[in-house]
Design brief:
single chain, alpha/beta, 2 domains, five-stranded mixed beta sheet, three-stranded mixed beta sheet, 8 helices, 23% strand, globular
Length: 274
């Protein structure tokens, strides 16, 4: 289901998307978010949604991912700014003269969720930032409040890029009409995360994991989302991820009350992991 509105802190009420964008377009907003930023947030939030499971939603709180799929929801602009900020780097990638690279291209791959018997396929989709087939190299770019001091790639980013690698092995692209375009088989031997904050850039090499291990991880996450369709809600995040339950970062905290989050510690860590 789509994002349908913004919870405006400066005016103390919720506006529909058209109302919020009209306010900003007419320069009537009392918040710090202008029209280009807000419209970019809307495109980012609703642009890639569909039946296919997105790599990024498989790596977040699965309960939140399920609710976003099944309910209309509203957010504060502040809660989505970090994602919008990350998209700004993609403009640099898009216009860079990177000969032979595959840039900002969405890939799809079918995954059978049944072990034996009649197959039940779901589709996984993801969009790597940049792939260099000739170098067998994949890179992903992350903006951060602070780049990793130890120069190491963060664990959930390693998972993200390894799932992209999985998509490149037997996945496919679609054309502008949504039809199958071509299968891809791009071997990857190197992977890096490029972290950027306001003062530094860190290029962090990362391991490439066994494809069967990656597929099993994806399957485990997908099965939880499939079970949610039958009424079995995914569990809340573990201790390291419970900051996601803070209402500042999740629109569904109240909906979760009574389903296992009453006693969670929801303070965000000093150094956020995104």
């Amino acid at each position: 289901m789509p994002l349908i509105g913004f919870d405006c802190k400066s005016k103390g009420k919720t506006f529909t998307i058209p109302e919020c964008l009209a306010c900003a377009r007419d320069h009537q907003q009392t918040c710090h978010f202008d029209y280009p930023i807000l419209s970019g947030m809307v495109r980012l939030e609703n642009g890639a949604k569909g039946q296919a499971y997105r790599v990024t939603e498989l790596l977040t709180c699965l309960r939140k991912a399920f609710f976003e799929r099944t309910r209309d929801y509203t957010v504060t602009p502040e809660s989505r700014y970090w994602a919008f900020r990350g998209q700004l780097t993609h403009v640099l990638i898009e216009f860079a003269d990177t000969e032979g690279a595959i840039k900002e291209t969405r890939f799809y791959k079918k995954l059978d969720t049944v072990n034996g018997g009649e197959p039940n396929f779901v589709t996984i989709t993801g969009q790597p930032d940049i792939v260099y087939p000739n170098l067998q190299l994949i890179r992903d770019y992350k903006t951060a409040v602070m780049v990793p001091k130890d120069g190491q790639a963060r664990q959930h980013h390693i998972w993200q890029v390894n799932i992209y690698h999985w998509l490149l092995q037997g996945g496919y692209q679609i054309d502008d009409n949504g039809d199958f375009a071509q299968e891809v088989n791009i071997p990857i031997e190197q992977a890096e995360i490029i972290y950027m904050d306001m003062s530094k850039v860190v290029r962090a090499p990362m391991p490439i994991w066994d494809l069967d291990e990656v597929e099993n991880y994806i399957l485990g996450r997908v099965l939880q989302l499939e079970a949610a369709k039958k009424g079995q809600l995914p569990p809340v995040p573990d201790t390291h991820g419970q900051w996601q339950c803070n209402p500042q970062y999740c629109s569904f905290t109240k909906l979760c009350l009574g389903h296992g989050i009453e006693n969670l510690e929801v303070k965000r860590p000093t150094r956020a992991r995104r």
